[in-house]
Amino acid sequence: MGTNSRKPLVVLDASWYMPQEKRNPLEEYQLPHMLPLEEAFAAAVSVLGIQNTDSVIIYDGKGLFSAPRVWWTFRIFGHNKVWVLNGGLPHWLKAGYEVEATTPENVTLRATAVRKAIKSIYHGQYVKQNMTDKTHQLLDARSKGRFDGVAPEPREGIKSGHIPESKCVPFTEGLHRLGKLDVPVYDGSWTEWATQPGNPIHTLATD
């Protein structure tokens, strides 16, 4: 009686799916995709019941897809006690570990509150300026085919190709574990770049 029985370890579902997969991530525990303002992030994790002293384990439904993005977001905002579950949910299921069969109603309410807390929009000015300043090497984390402009984008109406002078390093070949720690992420990503009028797009044919 009177003691705090709360265990400071959080397991976080970071699943996110491409449109053609026709899966509703909100129904499977959804997190928003864009990087929030610091204040919005603090509000969001508070809604989820996560405290600064907690250890956080993140997984996603594919094994290694969107969880690293959420891991990176936590680290951006100074929460370093965070890890990605090796193999994610597929490995967990294959190992025969227990899962919950239903989603409590308050999960949907929390996800809605989180979504309302995150309203930051970034328009890629830094990326455009870097094309002139060349202070950073821009890396593209998509597949080589999409980078080269020979494979279609998963979102309808968006051209494939890449930002000029960028290099292709698919997301499955992460840099953090190789000792590359200071790697900023272009939050708007290819979807934003390719849909902004006037932004240059290079392909294998134009390089």
UniProtKB/TrEMBL annotation:
It comes from the Eukaryota. SUPFAM superfamilies: Rhodanese/Cell cycle control phosphatase. Pfam families: Rhodanese. Coiled coil: none annotated. InterPro entries: Rhodanese-like_dom, Rhodanese-like_dom_sf, Thiosulphate_STrfase_CS, TST/MPST-like. One of its GO terms (cellular component) is mitochondrion. Residues 5-101, 132-173, 175-202 form the Rhodanese domain. Keywords: Repeat, Transferase. Gene3D superfamilies: Rhodanese-like domain. GO terms for molecular function: thiosulfate-cyanide sulfurtransferase activity. PANTHER family: SULFURTRANSFERASE, THIOSULFATE SULFERTANSFERASE. This is Sulfurtransferase. The lineage of its organism: Eukaryota, Viridiplantae, Streptophyta, Embryophyta, Tracheophyta.
